[in-house]
Amino acid sequence: MVELGKLNTLKVIKFVDFGLYLDGGGDGEILLPVRNIPAGIRVGDELEVFIYLDSEDMIIATTETPKAMVGEFAVLNVVEVNQIGAFLDWGLPKDLLVPFGEQQKPMEKGQSYVVYLYIDAASERIAATTKLDKHLAESSPYFKEQQQVDLLICGRTDLGYKAVVNGFATGLIFNTEVFKPIKYGQQMKGYIKRIREDKKLDLCLQLANREALDELSQKIMRFLEKQGGTSALTDKSRPEDIAAQFAVSKSSYKKAIGKLYKQRLIVINKDNISLVK
Questions:
Q1: How far from the centroid of its chain's Cα atoms is residue 2's Cα?
Q2: Are 172 and 202 within 8 A, CB to CB?
Q3: Is the CB of residue 97 less than 8 Å from the CB of residue 113?
Q4: Average pLDDT per consecutive 10 residues, the chain (277 residues; last block may be shorter)
Q5: From CA 38, how far away is CA 56, in angstroms rounded?
Q6: Which of 21, 61, 170, 189 is the most exposed place for a label (fewest CB within 10 A)?
């Protein structure tokens, strides 16, 4: 049996005018169209191919690699919306369907969305959904605090940005951790800041380790000296104001000025911070 929606390694069993056939085991002979046949291929050779259903719902192979496969999250663009649902460009001739019932909100042509690819149980077709939560784990025993991870920004809340973590889990980047512009659908590196008691993941874009805090503390001291000893950037300042000056999160900034305060190098006032005279 072949795996629909994924890469399979199959053996060439015969050539025909319109392509060649691969041994699909229990799924029978699977056509690879002539346009996809690599040069120099012979009967008995093995090919790595992607398996999907064509416009007539027949199993077909291609040597083209789609933008995403079953079980993966991806950012895909809507090329058409009709009475069936929304159709996405996923890099193959037949566009990928997002049924209306699998749309978190109505999808619009020309817009890009974070989707998850799955096999529809009723039709056995490859489909996509923007209802991501049911396909995301809240944590994993393999995660550790301060671990670097791959993030895909998939939503926005009042608290911060939701992200797909390493392609299977979900986490949150709090607003206080944001020090640069973040967009829906953006992919980036991040870190596990904290694994909470409920196993949910708090994320950050940079680690506030000792070396980083020391460097930031020195930057703050130099900045204060240039400003005549006083700065309006406090632990109550907006994250974007702190990011604009120091390119760090508000959380990291608060830790750095807290460290300087404990070292009695600065005074933290209601509306500013200042060097100790």
A1: 27
A2: yes
A3: no
A4: 95 95 94 94 96 90 96 97 97 94 96 97 93 88 91 96 96 90 94 91 86 86 91 90 87 90 90 89
A5: 24
A6: 189
Alpha-helix residue ranges (DSSP H) falling in the chain: 210-226, 239-246, 250-262
Domains parsed from the chain with CATH numbers = 4-60 (2.40.50.140), 70-131 (2.40.50.140), 145-202 (2.40.50.140), 208-273 (1.10.10.10)
Backbone dihedral angles phi then psi of residue 184, each to the nearest 5 degrees: -60, 130
What is the rounded radius of gyration, in angstroms, for the C-alpha atoms of the chain? 26
DSSP secondary structure string for all residues of 39-56: TT--TT-EEEEEEEE-TT
216 CB burial (10 A radius; 0-12, 13-18, 19+): buried
Cα dist. 230→250, 261, 272 in Å? 18, 14, 7
**β-pair partners for 267:** 274
Sequence-distant (6+) residues with CB within 8 A of 32 are: 19, 20, 21, 22, 47, 49, 60, 61, 62, 63
Q: How many CB atoms lie within 10 A of CB 94?
A: 16
Reduced to 3 states (helix: H, G, I; strand: E, B; else coil), residue 158 is coil
Residue-wise pLDDT for 58-71, tens only, equals 899 999 999 999 99
Beta strand residue intervals within the chain, DSSP E: 7-16, 19-23, 29-33, 46-53, 59-62, 73-81, 85-89, 96-99, 112-119, 126-129, 148-156, 160-165, 169-174, 187-195, 201-204, 230-231, 266-268, 273-275
Burial letters for 37-56: b for 16+ Cβ neighbours within 10 Å, e otherwise? eeeeeeeeeebebbbbbeee
Residues 28 and 101: their CA atoms lie apart, in Å, by 33
